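Hypothesis: this fold can be encoded by more than one sequence.
Test: take the C-alpha cells below, design a sequence, compare later.
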C-alpha cells in the first residue's frame, strides 16, 4: 500500500491495484476566502499543491469523507473527469450528482468495489452544539486482499464512534485528520494531539498517519508541535507526520511507519 499526502486532507492511495484520490482540494494557494470566525485570517489554501493538478486527475476513483470546501472544492469539481467513480456518504450523493458526475456511489454501510471493500464509519465534527452545526461527516475502513487494513477517520475528534471503529475493525493503519481546526468560539473540530494520543492508546500495534495540517487557515496545531509531543511520548516509531507530497509505503504483510 502506498499513501501519498498531497495537501491538507487530499491523499493519493495506491491500494489493491487501484489509485484512489481522497478528499480532493485542488485550488491554487490563496484562491479561497479564509474560514470566517477563525483567529487566522489568511486566504486558503495556505500552500500550493506539491504536484501538478494534472498528475492528480488520472485516478481510478475518488473517495469523499464529506463535501466541505477544504475536502472537495470547486476546482476539484471542475477538473476531475466526470466519469470517474465517486464514493461518498449518503447525504452528499445529491450534491455530487448535481455537479455532473455520472458514476456516484453512496456508501450506506458497506460497499464492494472490485477487490476493495469500503466500510463507512461515524465521527463527530467537534463536540456538543458545534458538532451539530458542522453537519454529518464520515470515515472509512478500506480492506483489500493482501493489503493492511486502513482507517481514514475523516473530520472527527476522539469520540465513541471512533473508538467503536477501532474496537471492531482493528485497522493496521489509521489516517487521522489533525490540525485542531477551530473557530473563535468552541473547541477543536478535528483532532488535536490529545485525540491522536487516545487513538494510539486504543490500539497499541497500529500505525498512525496524521494529516490535515498547515494548509487551511483554521487549523492551528502545527507539524512541529505534533512531532515534539510524539517524541516526548516515545511514539516516533508509530506516528508519521508527513510533509506535503511525501510518500509512505506499507508492505503487504507487516505495516511500518513512513
Amino acid at each position: 500500500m502506498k499513501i501519498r499526502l498531497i495537501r491538507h486532507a487530499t491523499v493519493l492511495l495506491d491500494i489493491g491495484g487501484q489509485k484512489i484520490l481522497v478528499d480532493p482540494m485542488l485550488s491554487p494557494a490563496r484562491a479561497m476566502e479564509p474560514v470566517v470566525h477563525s483567529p487566522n485570517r489568511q486566504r486558503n489554501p495556505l500552500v500550493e499543491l506539491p504536484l501538478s493538478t494534472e498528475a492528480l486527475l488520472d485516478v481510478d476513483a475518488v473517495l469523499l469523507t464529506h463535501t466541505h470546501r477544504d475536502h472537495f472544492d470547486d476546482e476539484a469539481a471542475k477538473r476531475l473527469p466526470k466519469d470517474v467513480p465517486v464514493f461518498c456518504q449518503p447525504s452528499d450523493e445529491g450534491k455530487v450528482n448535481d455537479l455532473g458526475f455520472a458514476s456516484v456511489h453512496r456508501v450506506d454501510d458497506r460497499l464492494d468495489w472490485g477487490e476493495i471493500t469500503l466500510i463507512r464509519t461515524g465521527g463527530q465534527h467537534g463536540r456538543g452544539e458545534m458538532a451539530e452545526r458542522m453537519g454529518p461527516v464520515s470515515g472509512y475502513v478500506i480492506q483489500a486482499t493482501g493489503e493492511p487494513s486502513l482507517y481514514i477517520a475523516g473530520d472527527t475528534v476522539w469520540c465513541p464512534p471512533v473508538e467503536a471503529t477501532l474496537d471492531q475493525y482493528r485497522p493496521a493503519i489509521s489516517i487521522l485528520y489533525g490540525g485542531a481546526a477551530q473557530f473563535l468560539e468552541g473547541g477543536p473540530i478535528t483532532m488535536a494531539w490529545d485525540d491522536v494520543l487516545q487513538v494510539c492508546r486504543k490500539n497499541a500495534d497500529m500505525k498512525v498517519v496524521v494529516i490535515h495540517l498547515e494548509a487551511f487557515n483554521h487549523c492551528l496545531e502545527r507539524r512541529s508541535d505534533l512531532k515534539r509531543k510524539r517524541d516526548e511520548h516515545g511514539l516516533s516509531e508509530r506516528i508519521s507526520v508527513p510533509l506535503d507530497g511525501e510518500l509512505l509505503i506499507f508492505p503487504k504483510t507487516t505495516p511500518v511507519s513512513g
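Residues 32 and 44 are 5 Å apart (CA to CA). Residues 254-258 have pLDDT under 50 and may be disordered.
Hypothesis status: open.
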